[in-house]
Amino acid sequence: MNDIITSKLKEIEEKENIKILHCVESGSRAWGFASPDSDYDVRFIYLRPKEFYLRLEKTRDVIEWQLDDTLDINGWDIRKALTLLYSSNPTLFEWDASPIVYQTTDEWARISEVVHRYFVPQSGLYHYLNTAKRNYTASFKGETVRFKKYFYVLRPLLACEWILAEGTPPPIVFRKLTERFPNKEIAEDVEKLLHIKMNTPEIGEGKRFERIDAYIEQSFVDIEEKIKHLPTAHGNGWHDLNALFLSLIE
Question: Are strands 40-47 and 71-77 parallel, antiparallel or unpaired?
Fold first, then answer.
């Protein structure tokens, strides 16, 4: 599959006339709990020729290349990526930290050096908390639930716990985050869930875990209260990002 993805990236570069600066896995495979039939969530940052950025008309800043049962491939233009980084968009921190890198460059290494300067704990917390709430509301309505939906709630909640404790972007790998579980019983239940998730198809479904549900609902309350007391800005200006962007397009 790595060879297939590499071939796809070359095809994208040739047909779109771009240079891919960084390409990673961003889904459950990067998180460390892929199901046997999980697809590949391939994400990349790309650079176009200088002339593209000097146009007066508005230009498209995303490439949505493929979406099927096996591959989900799309990317962001570097200008979009750096603009979102200034706003402390959590996606950029995740792509930079993904443990599965399909392709990268010296240019991305330069970008990576400044990425963490733009992390705002409050922004990250609101992003992950809202993600957890949205998934919980959408999927936890009856006595049973698709097992993978637990991780779409637990992972962002644990990311919040990490941010509150460390003040840095959370790790991507789920097991790194589980070190912060408050008690042994919940940790044991999550290990059971992990085993089920990694050994059953994506549509696997079963009874809900009451202790985990209680932890989730209490976490919503606790994190919401703690967010209020955190800084709302990173204190960095546009200078470094502007300098990076200009150096890249030159």
Answer: parallel
- Residues 236-248 pLDDT 10s: 889 999 999 999 9
The whole-angstrom separation of Cα 151 and Cα 190 is 9
Distance CA 192, CA 213 (A): 14
Q: In 17-98, where does DSSP find H-type helix?
A: 28-31, 78-86, 90-97
Please state, in angstroms and as integers, the Cα–Cα distance from residue 127 to each residue in 222, 223, 227, following that order.
15, 12, 11
Beta bridge partners of 63: 75
pLDDT band for 38, please (50, 70, 90 cuts): confident
CB within 8 A of 195, min separation 6: which ones?
Answer: none
Global confidence as pTM: 0.90
Q: Which of 171, 175, 25 is nearest to 90 (CA)?
A: 171
Angle, to 10 degrees, between the axis of helix 147-166 and the axis of helix 184-199? 130
